[in-house]
Amino acid sequence: MDATQKAVFAVALAEDQAIQYKNMSCRLWKETLALSEDYLLSCTASTGTAPPPPSESAAAMRGLAQDMERQHYARFQALAQSFLAQCEADACAGLRKVMEELVGDGQLNWGRVVSLFTFTGVLARQLQEKKGVQLGQDPGTGRALGQVPGGSCRGLAETIADYLGEEKRDWLLENGGWEGFCKFSRIAREVNQESSMKTALFAAAGVGIAGLTFLLVR
Predict the structure, then answer these.
(1) 65 and 114 in contact (C-beta within 8 Å)?
(2) Residue 8: CB partners within 8 Å, gap ≥ 6?
């Protein structure tokens, strides 16, 4: 293979890799959106009406985020109330700022991702309560119905997907995508709720919660 052929081959290889990366990125964004929508629907649906999680990662997020909400219930309720006092007019833009603050030190990890989902779920529920509507599902599309002040559950889910699936895409890919999250979840589920290992798994999330507190109550 002469120099010209090598150059052509290198260009073709680079283009192929770019296409593969773009396709992978698009798939990751869609997976993140589906995961976000499922979690927010599970938080806002009336008891017993949420559909089964559509994937292992969705089931894992429901389990871990709900665990975190139970452990820090009062904190998350207060944070969501503070958020609404400042950002209710544009909840999606406010959520974007919260996500940036959550990883302001550059140390993103699965614990912080879970804390983000937990916070957004509590926020969606409080928005729903303020609006006085019950978000259900459109039987034709299976998507959530109902609007909340400052945006819909879909809008909040898209905000998460845009941030994690695009801006933090490289981090997600480096950590195995949502399959990597499932592995993290299995480790967390294998240990006792009160064990030191479980505490360690969520320690970083606590740092993220502290960051949220600083942002919303200062």
Answers:
(1) yes
(2) none
Per-residue pLDDT of 110-138, as tens digits, reads: 988 998 999 999 999 999 888 764 444 44
DSSP string for 78-137:
HHHHHHHHHHGGGHHHHHHHHHHHHTTTS---HHHHHHHHHHHHHHHHHHHHHHT----B
Give the burial class of 57: count Cβ atoms within 10 A of its Cβ; 0-12 exposed, 13-18 middle, 19 or more buried.
buried
- Hunting for tokens 């008891």 — which residue is that? 47
Classified as helix, coil or strand, 148 is strand
Domains and CATH numbers, the chain: 3-217 (1.10.437.10)
pLDDT, one tens digit per residue, over 49-79 is 788 999 999 999 999 999 889 988 998 999 8
Task: Please state the pTM of the whole predicted model.
Answer: 0.76
Tokens of 134: 């019950």
Q: What is the three-class DSSP state of 151?
A: strand
How far apart, in whole angstroms, are the C-alpha atoms of residue 107 and residue 90?
A: 27
Which residues are CB-neighbours of 97 under 8 A, at least 6 positions away? 87, 215
